[in-house]
Amino acid sequence: MVEINSSDIIASFDVDAQNCFTPLCPEELPVPDGHTIANALNAQAELAHWRVASKDAHPVSAVWVASKENPQLTPLSGHANSDLYWNLHAVPGTYGFELLEGLPAVTDYDFFVWKGIEPDLHPYGACYHDLADTRSTGVIEFLRDRNTRTVLVGGLALDFCVKVTVLQLLQAGFRVIVNLSATRSLTEVTEQQAMTQMREAGAEFINSLDELVFS
Ligand code: VGL
Question: Could you report the predicted ipTM of this complex, rounded to two decimals?
């Protein structure tokens, strides 16, 4: 059980809950079962005062697009803000770019982040546009301005963009609760590493919203 003080301001964060991270887009970055989390994200948002979200928004000309010579997940050098090659994903105007079916329209969120728009920027976390965490996307300021104490986090994928967003929110001083029913991982190995890293940084975890107790 994870206790939350009823007077705390709570935010709900949908990280990159886009079709490109589901088996519906097998050519992009399919996360097993990634398409099944919309209801869990909506339920989580019901408990929150603010609902924020992010989307990857990548150009076709990105420097990190994987090829035969440079396959996915191999290191990329010479670009300070792109570290690995990835299959092209989340191109605005495509189906993969869109939020999962069942989620609100972008304009119905209280704050929305688009990230990775520049061809040589491939940030994972939703709080900064660069890998050095220096160029804010504004979401931390939005949450701070509203006295947010606790952030409930879900989205895709747990082992990459969700993980880094969680670490950034913890670093910024928020209490962070990862809702495991509202997130999925790209691989089991990276999931284990991500869970350890988040736990060591102070994240809390729930398997379902039933594990939250309001006192
Ligand atoms: C993601 C890998 C590459 C994610 C994005 O949203 O988790 N993972 N780009």
Answer: 0.95
